[in-house]
UniProtKB/TrEMBL annotation:
InterPro entries: NAD(P)H_nitroreductase (IPR052530), Nitroreductase (IPR029479), Nitroreductase-like (IPR000415), YdjA-like (IPR026021). It holds the Pfam family Nitroreductase. Residues 22-178 form the Nitroreductase domain. It comes from Falsiroseomonas frigidaquae. This is Putative NAD(P)H nitroreductase. It is an enzyme of class 1 (oxidoreductase). Residues 182-202 are annotated as: Disordered. It comes from the Bacteria. Its EC number is 1.-.-.-. Its cofactor is FMN. Keywords: Flavoprotein, FMN, NAD, NADP, Oxidoreductase. Belongs to the nitroreductase family.
Length: 202
């Protein structure tokens, strides 16, 4: 039987889908001032809160770190790294200390996890992660750039506490945010056909 054509290939592309298809990460050091203002961030968080959310548990949590607070947070990251691994060379600690300074806004993004008889933690994390992607897509569509990074500090209890997350919550990523160069790279993606197939009943 000939393969069915990929269902999206011929679809007309509206503005919203065009924005989704153009999104690409921007490395933190290529993100400059200005950071999104409160109005833009509010729109992005509102987009996050459009993610599917089983039981309406509202797990999305975003903590913004800007201006001089980035250096203070960098100090905490370095202290936490040293506490986790006391033999860490000073040069590596310094790299950790400087991380938040790479872009004008660093967002700690996570999930507030509640004990629930029917909705396990993974579903709440999935809702929060989907929200993070909406947050990033919204900022990207508004002309900002983002980069979602991880690091061992996401699991560090002292860092979670400093950011106001409970031990049972989940920190899901560091989102570096700022304004990219106008001519930012948007690398090609693999063809969508590779990620889709119609189920063939046995
Ligand atoms: C949960 C999560 C954690 C990530 N952590 C890292 C990371 O620590 N380092 C890294 O280089 N990319 C990381 N990435 C991937 C980048 O965000 C980005 O997707 C990658 O650089 C490719 O760029 P693209 O988004 O334009 O495809 C992470 C992505 C996700 C979703």
């Amino acid at each position: 039987m000939p393969e069915a054509p990929f269902p999206l290939a011929e679809a007309p592309v509206n503005e919203a889908v065009r924005a989704l298809l153009a999104r690409a990460s921007v490395p933190p050091r290529q993100l400059h001032d200005p950071a999104p203002d409160a109005a833009a961030l509010s729109l992005a968080v509102a987009a996050a809160a459009r993610a599917p959310d089983h039981g309406w548990l509202r797990p999305w949590r975003f903590v913004g770190i800007q201006g001089e607070d980035r250096a203070k947070f960098g100090d905490l990251l370095a202290q936490a790294m040293q506490a986790r691994a006391p033999d860490t060379p000073e040069a590596r600690l310094e790299l950790e200390r400087l991380k938040p300074l790479r872009s004008p806004l660093l967002v700690a993004a996570g999930a507030a996890i509640r004990a629930h008889p029917k909705i396990p933690a993974w579903e709440q994390e999935a809702t929060a992660a989907a929200g993070i992607m909406n947050f990033i897509n919204a900022l990207d569509a508004m002309g900002f750039g983002c980069c979602w990074l991880s690091s061992p500090a996401l699991q560090d209890l002292s860092i979670k506490a400093a950011l106001g997350f409970a031990e049972t919550d989940r920190l899901l990523g560091w989102i570096y945010v700022g304004t990219p160069e106008a001519e930012r790279p948007r690398p090609e993606r693999p063809a969508p056909q590779g990620f889709w197939r119609d189920w063939q009943p046995a």
